[in-house]
Amino acid sequence: MRKWREWAGPGIAFGGDYNPEQWPRETWDEDVVLMREAGVTFVSLGIFSWSHLQPAPDRWEFGWLDDAMDLLHANGVAVDLATATASPPPWFSRRFPETLPQRADGTRLWQGSRQAWCPSSTVFTEHATALAEKVATRYADHPALTMWHVSNEYGCHDVPCHCDTCAAAFRVWLLARYGDLDGVNEAWGTAFWSQRYGEIEEIVPPRTVPTFANPGQVLDYRRFQSDALLGQYRAELEVLRRVTPDVPVTTNFMTNDHFRHLDYAAWAEHVDVLSTDHYVVGALADPEAELAFTADHTRGLAGGDPWLLMEHSTSAVNWQPVNVAKRPGQMMRHSLGHVARGADALGFFQWRASRAGAEKYHSGLVPHAGTDSRLWREVVELGAVAGRLAEVRGSRVDAEVALLWDHHADWACDQEAHPSAEVRYGAVAHDLHASLRRQGVTVDVVPVSDAVTTTPDLTGYRVVLVPTLYLTSDATAAAVQAAADAGAHVVVTYFSGIVDERDHVRLGGYPGAFRDLLGVRVEEFAPVLPGVSLRLDGRLVAGAHGTTWAEDLTCTDAEAVTSFVDGPVPGVPAVTRRGLGGGEGEGTGAGAGGAAWYVATRLDPSGTDALTSRVLAEAGVAPVVPDVPVGVDVTRRRDGDRSWLFVVNHTDAEVTLDVSGHDLVTQRAVGAADEAAGLLRVAAGGCAVVREARDEAVAPEA
Fold first, then answer.
1. Active site residue 37
2. Domain spans in the chain, listed from the N-terminal domain onward
3. Which overall architecture, per CATH, does domain 632-692 show?
4. CATH for 401-619?
5. What pLDDT score was predicted for residue 698?
6. How far is residue 275's CA from residue 400's CA, in Å, rounded to a whole number?
7. Is the whole-model pTM more than 0.70?
8. What pLDDT does residue 700 have?
9. What is the pLDDT of residues 572-593, one digit of tens each?
């Protein structure tokens, strides 16, 4: 894999999207002066500049970009240079209207926004790769060039496309996957509802239909659209590899929880450095919990390696119903929250808040108010802190718990005609992740996918969480079994292991793929209506209850941890445990006897915390630092025998921790090395990054 070059200047890379084409030339000189003041070390340049580079089919204008590249290099700013293919110019859509995407109901999506192109269009591929080659050839040897940035946020607006071009490409994709039409018919179960296809040309995308669409068709179309966009990316990648073989390449993923259009596990192996965009959703009850989950997911996609936060916001965005501004200190907390979980770069959209356009109310590093503003002063402060974190770069995050995440399971789980529309993929995953975060335990969100050939090795984890993994491949089931055999505590929740990769039910009793491992058998689902609370018998924790789901469950080789008191199945186990291997006592840890746990309802927070606390105790997993208040995130990054403790205090009270070392944020000694204080004190809403004293840092577990 090509290595990410060192950014200009020391520290965690700091900067963001720069769009000089939006501003008069005299503003550029002010920009670089302010970039030096803020500590900016990199920018992503030219992302939406196709219409400026190629204003007409036969005209190219690179002079402005030459000037921008030279100016940035002269001022010590490295460039993540875009291929500029994110959105075609108006002339392209006018000349090639067949490249415009189409909704399921036939509505054509026109030029006038962004990403107005069909994922399957070979016409788009031809013009995009031509532009990429022009850009790559011109700037291959420019000293500012640090990395290539292909397109932008693939699939944000143009998938799924249901046009005739996609229909033809879908048929080709299906024959490659299944071999022939009989294979497609078998995979989709077309014997039902007289859907059997006699010729491949009869197959179209899952367009608007009278009632429920074929679930296998819907699932495969999601897979196909992800692969189609990956093909577009790889076409540009091939050009960049040929012209500049030593320059690393990335494209910015969107690992926010609300974006699930692409199978990033399949995409990850095609980037040299994994990068993502993340924007806090103000309407969430706990936005910082979602931020932590997303960062852990991004690290999982990176295989545990450091990754780049290509975009986030200094304050409000423009695309939510109510765009909540960040309060004082929140930008610092959110930024260091990402670094704590593996980010080696802090990028923002964008350098200057725009004067015009659809994103003119999206915050920037330089706000509309200018430099005489609280926001600018916080930007300068963050840039200084990023520079002081140089020694952290390249280190990895400690985690003994894995949580499985699969976009194919997501696409299959959230379809229509299921036992309950209240069961949505990811809800229980976030419940479990948030519970472990409250207890100060770091989690690797590990991607699994039947689109990649290598299944993750889970045997090094003490705890493996399998939440609502509705679609489960044989390979994933085997990986979970191997972790259990190695002594891990495996926690599987309801609606997991139900179907195979084709969305065919695994017969013989639920939960199919995990039935033998868990020692339970479910004859029938018993979901409950919204608002219904299911009382539990109190053996897990007093007052706990469940919602959403229950099951007619029998323990075949497991014990009931707690049972339903009322609801559709009173007296039936709601949580079970099957001991594995030789160890039955608490604290056995990986390599000794683990356990297989099953959760047949959606537990409330008290029940979830009680369950995870017991599992962690039995597995021998301790918090990063003991006795940390809820709302204070503590995470450790490590590089050999050096370690750094990140403390992000989201509460309105000061927190004190028994930690020794040197705080890189305040640049002072703390803990035992600071006899006057004796403890690390982090102010309300504050942050610390402590280089731990080597004789006191927690050593990796054997």
1. no
2. 1-11+274-395, 41-268, 401-619, 632-692
3. Sandwich (2.60)
4. 3.40.50.880
5. 47
6. 24
7. yes
8. 42
9. 999 999 999 754 444 344 445 8
